[in-house]
Every structure is written in C-alpha cells, then in structure tokens.
Design a protein that fits this description.
This protein has about 425 residues and is α+β, with helices and mostly antiparallel strands. The protein has a single domain, classed as Cytochrome P450 (Cytochrome p450, Orthogonal Bundle). It is about 45% helix and about 10% strand. The protein contains 18 helices and twelve strands. The chain has a five-stranded mixed beta sheet with strand order 1-2-8-5-3, covered by helices on one side. It has a three-stranded antiparallel beta sheet with strand order 4-12-9. Strands 6-7 form a two-stranded antiparallel sheet. A hairpin with a 2-residue loop joins β6 and β7. The longest helix is centred in the N-terminal third of the chain and has 18 residues. The radius of gyration is 21 Å and the shape is globular.
Length: about 425
C-alpha cells in the first residue's frame, strides 16, 4: 500500500499552510484517521476559535448528510464572519433546509446529465481549441495552457460573456480562492487589511468587482429570454416563491464565477500529474474509451481538489469518546475521506479500474456539488481529446502549489509535450 511520510500526532497542524504547499497534508491525515479521528485543532493565526477535524470517510459522510446537527448556515470555511454580516454574505452554500433546496433547483436542471449531453460536441470543440494551441508550443505551463483554459472557456459560454473577459474571470477566481496565498491576492484573509472587508465573501475586496460585473449582466438580461445562467437566475423564481434579492444574486453569481472554474482546473492539473506518474494508467485510459466515465471517477477521487468544507454543531455531540459542543466548528476533510484505506484499497494508488468508487470529492447529502456533472463531463472530454495526442510528456520544473488548506491547488506545472 502506498503511503506518505507519517507525521507524529503531536506535530499535526492543519493550519500550517506551509505543510500544504509542500504537499505534506496526507501524512497528517493518515495519522489522524488512525490515532485521533476526532481531532481538536487550535487556530493560532487570525481570529478563529479552533475546530474539530473529521478525517475518516464514514464520519465525514454521516456529518455531511445530517444538516440538522451539522449546519452550513454558520458558514462553510474556517473563517468566522461576524453575526451582523452573515446574512449579507450568505450564498447557497451557507443555506440549509427548504430555502437551500429552492436555490439549488433554480439551476439544477441546467446541470443535469440530460441537459449537459446537449453540449457535449460544443464542449469537445472548445477542448480541441485549447489542446491545439497548447501542443503547438510544446513547452507550456499545463495549468495556464490547458487546465485553466478549457473550463474557463466553458464558463464564459455558460455565462454568455465575451472572450476578452476570460483573463479577468481567471484573475478574480484566483484571488478569491487563493485568499491565503500572497501571490494570488493583495488582501490576505487573516491580515489587518482584511478586517475592513468582513462584510464581503472571503473578506476580499475582489468580491466587489465580481458583484459589479454580475449586476451589469443582470440589468441587461432581466426580462429577456436568454438561455445563459445569468438570464436564468434573474428571470426564474425559486420554488418557495421568494425571489432572489440583490444580495442573493450577487453571492450566487460570485459562486458561479469561482466554483465554475477553479476546482475543475485543479482536478485536471492533478490528474495530469497522476497520469505522468502512472504511464500504465494513461495507456489504459487511451485503450479503453468505453470505460472513461468509470475512470473519471477515479481521477476525481485521487485529485481531491478541495481539501475541506466545514459545518457548525447545533447541539452537543458525542463522538470517539469526545464531546463536540454546540457552536463548535467541525471540519470535514473530504480529501482525507477519499484516501481512507477502510473505504478504498491502496487509496494513494491511481487505479482506473476501481469500481464502485463512492468518493466524496463533490460532497455528500444535500450540499453535494451542483456542478458535479459538468466537472465530470469536462474531465472526460479533456483527457479523451488530449491523451491520444501525446507522444511524450515530461515535467520541466517544480510544481508550485497554492498556499491553502482549502483548495488542493497548483499554480504552476511546467511540462514539455511532444505531440503525435
């Protein structure tokens, strides 16, 4: 069984972002699953009050499905927004119950398998454009040239925004998701400067720019019959009969801009790295085109582009001989659950024949990722189009990772590709 360097329990620190940059989180997860499956973590940076960590698959799954005990309404990242700003910052992610379901259903059918099937050839054409441009250059940064280029182009089409907005969408997404990386954002989430932006998502002033652009699109499309996601948001009424407020729209639009690109990009980048480390699996993917849907699930599991989301306990809960108190933060480490050997045999091995593959990359229960089907389709199309065209591929420099314990991300991945 493949494992990572063990980390003594006393050295485990899931707030140590340098360990995540060095890709050392897996050793900490291994230790916690074995020795301390309900682990209390102090927060020494910022104004957080500490959190419990769940690292075993079964524990994460149970908490994910129990939204009554483990609520999302107190926010889903480690940051603790002040009470007076929570409604202003609340998105579909920070909603539970009937309102959450009504907000999901606004766009749920647009991300259904049946609906997305209509776009497959269109998406395949977009993928070919990205791949053609990348292969001409040979020496590329895989992140920028392929993994970012394809999904952001898909997002631009779904939002119906012009191509010249694509670089801006990427910059916005980088800054918001990279809220703890000084290379990606000018205002770090735990900085004194960020205190001025407690009323904004991720305490990021970038949110204001995204809001402004979204409002311009909404104004132009309200009352129309457009098929883009913005038109559908502004012209549909949720099932509960409560229209989207301006704040609801702002936060929904921002979520589409960020989630519609960042996580898929990371999954593609990490999957390419995994293919390069497992050339037999790359060959298997190419030689078995009838099995690609099954194989994509393993790529997504192994990549685990989001390390965690968190919940808040609504009552005291006994678990593993300890007591989670009402109001405590509880962090669900999806990446750890995806590598739990009690659930997945040899979990650090890329095995494209793995089936069934009940991973939790997209979450579980009522908050399962709305865009999961699109992510799967983009992953499948990209590698169906890219891998058969690669004669050789080699890494030409170090991978540079995002400084984050939230997104399992890569900023730079230099490679040289020789095309067939």
């Amino acid at each position: 069984m493949t494992t990572h360097a063990p980390v003594p329990l006393e050295d485990v620190d899931l707030t140590n972002l340098d360990a995540f940059v060095a890709n050392e989180a897996w050793g900490m997860f291994d230790t916690l699953r074995t020795e301390d499956p309900l682990h209390w973590q102090e927060e020494t940076i910022g104004d957080g009050n500490g959190f419990w960590s769940l690292t075993r698959y079964d524990d994460i799954e149970k908490a994910n499905k129990d939204g009554v005990t483990f609520t999302s309404t107190k926010f889903v990242n480690l940051e603790e927004p002040p009470e007076e700003f929570q409604d202003l910052r609340r998105s579909i992610l920070e909603s539970d119950g009937p309102r959450h379901q009504a907000l999901r259903k606004l766009l749920a059918r647009d991300f259904s398998v049946a609906q997305l099937r209509r776009y497959e050839e269109f998406l395949r054409d977009l993928a070919r454009v990205s791949i053609n441009e990348a292969l001409i250059r040979e020496d590329i940064d895989f992140v920028d040239a392929v993994a970012a280029d394809f999904p952001i182009n898909v997002l631009a089409r779904l939002l119906d925004v012009p191509d010249d907005m694509i670089p801006q969408l990427i910059t916005w997404g980088n800054a918001i998701v990279g809220f703890s990386d000084p290379e990606l954002t000018d205002v770090m989430v735990d900085s004194d400067e960020a205190q001025k932006y407690k009323h904004l998502p991720f305490r990021s002033p970038i949110s204001l720019e995204v809001f402004e652009y979204g409002r311009e699109l909404a104004k132009a499309r309200r009352g129309g019959d457009g098929e883009d996601l913005v038109s559908k948001l502004v012209n549909r009424i949720p099932d509960d009969g409560v229209p989207l407020s301006d704040t609801d729209f702002d936060n929904y639009f921002l979520l589409l801009v960020v989630a519609g690109n960042e996580t898929t990009r990371q999954a593609m980048t990490l999957s390419m790295k995994n293919f390069m480390e497992n050339p037999d699996q790359m060959r298997y993917f190419i030689e078995n085109p009838d099995k690609t849907q099954i194989m994509v699930e393993e790529l997504i599991r192994r990549a685990s582009p989001v390390y965690h989301f968190r919940r808040t306990a609504t009552r005291d809960v006994e678990m593993h001989g300890k007591t989670i108190k009402e109001g405590d933060k509880v962090v669900l480490w999806y990446a750890s659950g995806n590598h739990d050997p009690e659930k997945f045999v040899d979990p650090y091995r890329l095995d494209l024949t793995r089936f069934p593959n009940d991973h939790m990359t997209f979450g579980k229960g009522p908050h399962a990722c709305l865009g999961a089907n699109l992510a799967r389709l983009e992953m499948r199309i990209l590698f169906e189009e890219l891998l058969p065209r690669i004669k050789t591929i080699e890494q030409t420099g170090e991978i540079v990772r995002v400084r984050s314990n939230f997104v399992n991300g890569v900023k730079r991945f230099p490679v040289r590709i020789t095309a067939k």
